[in-house]
Amino acid sequence: MVSRFSNIKKLTICSIIFLSIFTILLTNYAEAQSVNELNSQIESYNDKIKRIDAEIEQQRKLIQTTSAKAGQIETQINALNATRKKLQNDVSRTQNVIKKSELTIRKIDIEVTDKERSIETTQDGLAESLRKISQDSQAPLIEIFLNTRTLSDFLNEVIEIKKFKEVLINRKYALLNLTRELHDKKTEEVKTKEELEKEKQILAGQQQVIVSNQNEKKTLLSSTQSEQAKYEQLLKEKEVQREAFNALVRDIESKIKILIDPKSFPSAQKSILSWPLDSIRITQQFGGSDFAKNNPGIYGRPYHPGTDFGVPTGTKVKSVSSGKIRATGNTDAYPGCVAWGKWILVDHDNGLSSLYAHLSSVIVASGQSVTNGEVIALSGNSGFSTGPHLHLTIYASQGVKVGKYGTYKPGGSGCATTDASGPFADLSAYLDPMSYLPSL
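Now predict its structure.
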């Protein structure tokens, strides 16, 4: 008497499973070759990026040394030349990061296709195997017993059916794992594509900064003809413009009275905010420093309304916390507004707002959400600045407004006659950034 669960049927099921596994392995081998090649190329770009990083660090130190000797026209020109070389390396680095990201996306595409194909093949094999197992195991045990010659054959038949079911259950769990891996790969691809788009924005900003650097050098040379006396006169004229602007801001902010709820923002506590730069060198603290007290006209008040960080032009500037871009602006676009230059104001989720000023490039837009540590700009030397640096002001969000200078001071002169806009705050809204940033 022939067993219902015959050797021929067992062989058929095994063949289906074997062919499924063989097809997956054969496909995986071919695709593994492509993935390995892409991994090799990605690693090559990693090496290039590391070498460029080392060059950029050397150039950063050189620029930092040069900036410490400001005040001489020759030094200023040398600093611009050194900055241009660094910016070119910055561009090269970003281009390599973009190529690396593109290769990573290609690799993930292959891996996603591999997972999808494996899932489809495994599903087909499982469906057919389960159908046959189901057909061969529908008979009652008594029928299986009657169709076997001996008790031993009956027991073996039952055990074989159980084993095949266990194999298929294991394959089912393997299928679930493949599905999870596919989801993870797709999530990784989305993240990599977002990073790629951000790097492209940064690249566009860096290329813009190179052009600005070249124009700045041309303007400097044409205005001074490399003569120190003319350079010093240029600085004096800029300081006069700055004083006029500060007088305007001083007058506006003295009239701004905003009731700020002390519970609307966190009390001073270290590391509530993160550093806006990777490398920290503080050149001017918040508050009544000796320089601020002795030169009240520089800031429009006898204290510095933020913290300054010495950093080369074109350095990535990061948001100190998650939040939303309230506004951006560029006072340099308006004659007489020698102030913040290119700036960004971010409202954070905790009731604080941060201002980033003297930027060379803004790579975010009003209304855009940003995450903690996200690159939002490139540092620069725009506005009134004695050298490349980042200015960071922290406000209680309730106490700062954005508006046109002319709206707050109708009939005024200079900046008030233009459409330039900027942040204005109740004097009590200014907070010491160092009280919220990490410890040095």
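Residues 58 and 86 are 9 Å apart (CA to CA).
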